[in-house]
Amino acid sequence: MTNYYGTTYWQLLWNNLKARPIRTTLSVMGVALQVTFVLLIVGMTLGWVNDWQKRVEGVGADLLVQAPNASIFFQFSNAVLPESLGESLQKVSGVDEVSPVLVIANQKNLEIVYGIDYASFNGLSKGFVFHAGGPFAGASDLIVDDLQAARHHLHVGDKYPLLGRDFTVCGIVAHGKGARSYIPLATAEELAGSNHRVTLFYVRSLGSTELTRQAIVRTLPGYQVRSMQEYLTLMNSSNLPGMGPFLDVMILLGVSISFLVVLLTMHTMVLERTREIGVLKALGASRLEIARLFLAESAFMALVGVAAGLTATFLTRAFLHYWTPGLAVLLTPEWLVGSVGLAFLGALMGALYPAWRASGFDPVEALAFE
Fold first, then answer.
1. β-strand 112-116 against 130-133: which pairing, if any?
2. Domain check: are 103 and 25 in the same one?
3. What is the residue range of 323's domain?
4. Which of 25, 60, 350, 370 could bridge to 263 as Cys pair (CB 3.0-4.6 Å)?
């Protein structure tokens, strides 16, 4: 055992893993599955929120006016604001442009559709950037952004079923202005049966955003009036209803996968290598050295599994981006490091009991084991 800490130790570790390729591969796949599972779930959640932030910011408004107790996520807000409220907002000191929007959630894919007054919505910023076609010309016209057009292979003049009605694509615009699909406000109100009520008002101010916000609050007490900066700070996954517990459960499930896979693998390895452990102890290996050998094996499997999981995650993200344009998967450095840490935590936790059990074998009994 003179070389136990040197070449012999690492050769022993490698040979033990190589002697059982199928079992080792399954353990590596278990760790890789955890890494990929956690990163994709979290990445799609963060990506959706981040994408939504950018799209709302891209509308060009300075302020948002919503009903009392309305959700920051428009999909969960009802159309309760009278459309005529826009006239009152337009008269407030400091207000430059007001645009009513009726938000409708497409039940088939949970995407939102904006019912807009084209002139006022377009006037909030530099306007839509058309790649093809132009503004609404009829009640059944539809404007889609370039990502939506690419996803569904749409061209100007194509028919597209939406919200139980066939629309004609009249324009394809650059993405980044709230929704991915836009229909005339009157048509949206008819489909939603909202009786001239809308979900929110986008407001652009002439000067100080805060002074304009205060003026609107005085004019319309009780309504939610947020600056765009304030709204964007609230837009995070922790404010999405039920998202916190969902992510916690997914993370716990991912850690459990690697924990159980490694526990089963290492426990079986201990039973199969009873005589080997006895030989090592007879040669002078201590309990700590035996435990370290098994922990090192699990750490090595976790390392390979993490590398495989990260590779699979980035490949899957690239595939999703190609297959579904517009689907954002945000992989932040914090979560990349966190998923790696969780993988090693699950693997080492799974190896602790088998390592402790192996280190406690009596060498005489182990050598006599058949």
1. unpaired
2. no
3. 7-51+242-368
4. 350
% residues pLDDT > 70 (the chain): 82
Nearest to 128 by CA among 180, 86, 206: 180
Identify whether 285 is part of a domain.
Answer: yes
Apex CA 323: angle with CA 318 and CA 327, to 5°? 75
Query: What does the pLDDT look like over 63-98, one tens digit per residue?
Result: 999 998 887 777 667 778 999 999 999 999 999 999
Placement of tokens 């995650």 in the chain:
313
| DSSP letter assigned to residue 134 | -
* Entry pTM: 0.71
Task: Say whether both 126 and 209 belong to one domain.
Answer: yes
CA 246 to chain centroid, in Å, comes to 12
Nearest to 9 by CA among 366, 287, 293, 276: 293
Q: How many domains does the chain have?
A: 2
How far apart CA 246 and CA 251 sit, in angstroms, is 9
Query: Is 106 within 8 Å of 224 (Cβ atoms)?
Result: no
Both 208 and 252 in one domain: the answer is: no
Pinpoint the alpha helices (H) of 123-242: 146-152, 185-192, 209-219, 228-234
Contact 297, 9 (CB under 8 A): no
Under 8 Å CB-to-CB from 211, ≥6 apart: which residues? 94, 205
Task: Give the C-alpha separation, 197 to 302, whole Å.
Answer: 56
Q: Is 114 helix (H, G, I), strand (E, B) or coil?
A: strand
The whole-chain average pLDDT of the chain stands at: 82
| Cβ-contact 73, 231 below 8 angstroms | no
The answer as to whether 123 is a domain residue is yes
Written as six digits, the tokens of 27 are 């353990």
d(CA 132, CA 318): 27
